[in-house]
């Protein structure tokens, strides 16, 4: 049984440290949802901030790196294993609280609740 690690990229996601994915499109399991606005690759706290643009009224959401299924550098696209609705219903990105432990715990818990092994 595998456990979900929300704050680290999966070994098979194709992420290479140092790769700049800002500007890449984000593909949910049911369609594109926006672009990467910010990205961090810090061990234990890696994440991407997605600007959803007009899809959900310009809202930004924080996606833990663990939801990234794969990164396609040729297409400049990041594939995540969440639906548009799961991302839309996620806690809104709060730039002022990005490093706040309570905020990160809330975001991590939200995505962990949606985790299904082998998804």
In short:
This is PRC-barrel domain protein. By secondary structure, the protein is of the alpha+beta class.
Outline the structure in words:
- This protein has 119 residues and is an alpha+beta fold.
- The protein has a single domain, classed as SH3 type barrels (Roll), CATH 2.30.30.
- The chain is 15% helix and 28% strand.
- The chain is built from 2 helices and 6 strands.
- It has helices at 84-88, 101-113, and strands at 25-28, 31-40, 47-51, 60-64, 68-72, 77-80.
- Strands 4-3-2-1-6-5 form a 6-stranded mixed beta sheet.
- It is globular and about 35 Å long.
- It comes from Kribbella lupini.
Q: Any idea what the radius of gyration is?
A: 13 Å
Could you say how many structural domains there are in total? Answer: 1
Helical proportion? 10-25%
Mean pLDDT metric: 85
The secondary-structure class comes to: alpha+beta
Measured distance between first and last alpha carbons:
13 Å
Helices and strands in order:
Blueprint: E1 25-28, E2 31-40, E3 47-51, E4 60-64, E5 68-72, E6 77-80, H1 84-88, H2 101-113
Parallel strand pairs: 1-6
Antiparallel strand pairs: 1-2, 2-3, 3-4, 5-6
InterPro entries: Bac_photo_RC_H_C (IPR014747), PRC_barrel-like_sf (IPR011033)
Protein name: PRC-barrel domain protein
Organism: Kribbella lupini
């Amino acid at each position: 049984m595998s456990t979900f690690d929300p704050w680290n990229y999966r070994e098979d996601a194709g992420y290479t440290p140092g790769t700049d994915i800002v500007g890449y499109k984000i593909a949910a399991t049911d369609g594109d949802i926006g672009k990467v606005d910010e990205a961090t690759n810090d061990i234990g706290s890696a994440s991407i901030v997605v600007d959803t643009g007009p899809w959900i009224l310009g809202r930004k959401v924080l996606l833990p790196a663990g939801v990234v299924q794969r990164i396609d550098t040729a297409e400049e696209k990041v594939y995540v294993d969440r639906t548009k609705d799961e991302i839309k219903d996620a806690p809104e990105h709060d730039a002022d609280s990005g490093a706040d432990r309570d905020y990160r715990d809330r975001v991590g818990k939200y995505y962990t609740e949606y985790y299904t092994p082998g998804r």
